[in-house]
Amino acid sequence: MGKTLNIYEAKSQLSSLVERAAAGEEIVIAKAGHPRARLMPLDKPGTARPRRPAGTLRIRHIAEDFDAPLPADMQAAFEGKDEEPL
User: Fold this and answer.
1) CA-based end-to-end distance of the chain
2) Under 8 Å between Cβ of 5 and 17
3) Three-state SS at 50
4) 83 has pLDDT over 80
């Protein structure tokens, strides 16, 4: 963990803390001696994991009855209908 500052110190030095974090330093901001937040650098452009194009989820198995109608009681529950009395 990096340097720890209280909130008052962090507010008065925010601009320099942001620059230090951008340079790679991790700064912890505490309140009443308890860590509350962490200031750290963002990933540099091009270093983040590339996003997967929409619709390319790798599905290993879909049940044969995936799109079969629901049982009547479950369908009624989804539609907010009361169940039959006992």
Assistant:
1) 62
2) yes
3) coil
4) no
Q: How many domains are there within the chain?
A: 1
pTM flag (> 0.90): no
- Look up the domain containing 23 and give its range: 3-39
How does pLDDT run across 47-81, given as a tens digit for each residue?
A: 666 777 777 777 777 888 889 999 999 999 989 88
CATH number at residue 11: 3.40.1620
Measured CA to CA, the distance from residue 42 to residue 79 in angstroms comes to: 45
CA neighbor of 14 nearest in space, from 6, 34, 42: 6
Q: For residue 35, what are the β-bridge partners?
A: 30
Evaluate whether residue 22 is within a structural domain.
Answer: yes
